Amino acid sequence: MKIEQKKQEKNAGFTLVEVLVVIGIASTIIGILSALLSHFYRGFAKGEESGILLQESGMFLATLRNDLINAALGKNSQKEQWSKVLQSTQDTLSFSVYCDTDGNVEPVIYLIDGKSVKRLQGSKKSKTLINGNLKSLNWRVHSEEFKGPALGTKQIWIDLDLTLAGKEKPGLKAKPLRIRTKMFPTRLIKQMNG
After folding, report:
1. Any residues with CB less than 8 A from the CB of 99 and at least 6 apart, and which?
2. pLDDT over threshold 60, residue 193
3. 20 forms bridges with which residues in the sheet?
4. Residue 134 backbone phi and psi in degrees, to 5
5. 3-state class of 145 per DSSP?
6. Helix segments in 70-91, DSSP class H
7. Which strands make up the sheet holding 154-164, listed edge to edge?
8. Are 108 and 129 in contact (CB under 8 A)?
9. Contact 64, 183 (CB under 8 A)
10. Is the Cβ–Cβ distance between 48 and 55 less than 8 Å?
11. Structure confidence by residue, pLDDT tens digits, 98-137
12. CB-CB neighbours of 49 under 10 Å
């Protein structure tokens, strides 16, 4: 009986090989989990940044489209003065917008400020539409007078080429978002052709 008891006491501990195997398996599992969590975090961060780019571009385009729909000549302006009302430079796009039923207009300016785009209307406080994510923005005013059956009809539009890129974060940069479109100042076109 004493011999059996001594054998059981001798086999009660772990051997060095068993301890090393358990440490190896635990290290492998921890390494795999940390790699998966790191990969998940990067994917989440890129998705979040892409969402911010889409949100800012959507707000910018919706605001600009709404303003261009309401771009108008003042009540005392002549049709031929449209090019003084709607102007673009490398850093600004400016025009007047219809602001009340009396035909009054108010100036609106879109301003590129570094990597941001701001909107200024009259004496109101500026509103930032794109905040630090602008890579490039080009806008040009174009006009055309139709020939043939629609002789004398004028068309005005703005060519817009917008590229947004996320803020510089190592290993977490989303793909740049590029949007090219044409926008039409419908009220101004109607005034010119009316």
Report:
1. 105, 106, 122
2. yes
3. none
4. -75, 125
5. strand
6. 82-85
7. 134-145, 154-164, 177-183
8. no
9. yes
10. no
11. 888 887 889 999 999 999 999 999 888 899 999 989 999 9
12. 19
Judge whether residue 160 has pLDDT over 70. yes
Residues in the chain: 194
Query: How far is Cα 117 from Cα 135, in angstroms, rounded to an integer?
Result: 11
Q: Tell me: the pLDDT tens digits for 3-43?
A: 555 555 566 677 888 899 999 999 999 999 999 998 888 87
Give the phi and the psi of residue 78 in degrees, each rounded to 5.
-90, 155
Distances (CA, A) of 163 to 5, 153, 180: 79, 33, 9
The answer to whether residues 132 and 100 touch, using CB atoms and an 8 Å cutoff, is no
Contact 105, 73 (CB under 8 A): yes
Burial of 107 (0-12, 13-18, 19+ CB in 10 A): middle
